[in-house]
């Protein structure tokens, strides 16, 4: 039934999350909380974003969006699920 797929799947797909990573669900949840907090803090400090998002409440809402969580989980994966390395990359050199 159907055509065979002779394409090399390794060349077509990139793993973005390993469900068998060494972290517990609690550690992942804690990292996501920290990532949202950093996002909220960075937005509060960013003068240009305060025009678009005038209140801390709005900044916190923006930090809780799916894209923020996606980037946080991607950061964990790119850093080999090493929490210390991943946390260090949340805040770039020079601050948020």
From TrEMBL:
GO terms for biological process: negative regulation of transcription by RNA polymerase II. GO terms for cellular component: NuRD complex. One of its GO terms (molecular function) is histone deacetylase binding. Residues 1-21 are annotated as: Disordered. PROSITE patterns: ELM2. Residues 1-18 have a biased composition (Basic and acidic residues). Residues 1-94 form the ELM2 domain. Keywords: Nucleus. InterPro entries: ELM2_dom, MIER/MTA. This is MTA2 protein. It comes from Molothrus ater (Brown-headed cowbird).
């Amino acid at each position: 039934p159907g055509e065979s797929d002779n394409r090399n799947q390794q060349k077509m797909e990139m793993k973005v999350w390993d469900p068998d990573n060494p972290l517990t669900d609690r550690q992942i949840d804690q990292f996501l909380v920290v990532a949202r907090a950093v996002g909220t803090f960075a937005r509060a400090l960013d003068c240009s974003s305060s025009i678009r998002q005038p209140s801390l409440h709005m900044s916190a809402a923006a930090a809780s969006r799916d894209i923020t969580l996606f980037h946080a989980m991607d950061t964990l994966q790119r850093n080999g699920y090493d929490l210390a390395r991943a946390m260090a990359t949340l805040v770039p050199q020079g601050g948020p």
